[in-house]
Amino acid sequence: MIYSDKVMDHFNNPRNIGEIPDADGVGLVGNPVCGDVMKIMIKVNKETEIIEDIKFKTFGCGAAVATSSMVTEMIKGKGLTLDEALKISNKKVAEALDGLPPVKMHCSVLAEEGLKAAIEDYRKKNEKNI
Ligand code: FES
């Protein structure tokens, strides 16, 4: 299987790996077929809804590590709001990595789902009681 240089780079040197102990939102997703699991944590500015920090932990294949690393890079320091971050699709993540082999596209779905789950978690915890 041929991986792009960017995939190999993010696999070998994953960015933003780790935990945010006081995370505002946590998304934990898995793929039941391969058994891979990804956890994405975000820190959100409650006034502006901008994601100020993001970290991940992935127990999974190399493409899952590379896509989760890339999705955090697409957000960290970019000043994206929650709504803007929701527009990041797995295709955009794969494109940013210069593509993934077709059998590995599902790994990028975990990155999209993990991010969405973290945002949903934040929103659930911060629902205003009207
Ligand atoms: Fe499961 Fe890549 S093989 S996420």
List the helices and strands and how they pair.
Layout: H1 5-12, E1 25-30, E2 37-44, E3 51-59, H2 62-73, H3 82-85, H4 90-96, H5 105-125
Antiparallel strand pairs: 1-2, 2-3
Helix pairs in contact: 1-2, 2-5, 4-5
Bound molecules: FE2/S2 (inorganic) cluster.
Residues 31, 34, 36, 60-61, 63-64, 107, 110 line the site of FE2/S2 (inorganic) cluster (FES).
List keywords for this structure.
single chain; 130 residues; alpha+beta; Sufe protein. Chain: A; 3-stranded antiparallel sheet; 3 strands; globular; binds FE2/S2 (inorganic) cluster
Brief sketch in words of this structure:
By secondary structure, the chain is α+β, with helices and mostly antiparallel strands.
Annotated CATH architecture: Alpha-Beta Complex
Low-confidence blocks of residues: none
Please estimate the helix content.
40-55%
What are the bound molecules? FE2/S2 (inorganic) cluster
Number of self-contained structural domains: 1
Distance between the termini: 53 Å
CATH-derived topology? Sufe protein. Chain: A
Portion of residues in beta strands equals: 15-25%
Number of strands: 3
Main sheet: strand order:
1-2-3
CATH class: Alpha Beta
What are the secondary-structure elements, in order, as H or E? Answer: HEEEHHHH
Structural class: alpha+beta
Major sheet characteristics: 3 strands, antiparallel
Instruction: Using the CA coordinates, give the radius of gyration.
Output: 14 Å
Query: DSSP helix count?
Result: 5
Molecular shape: globular
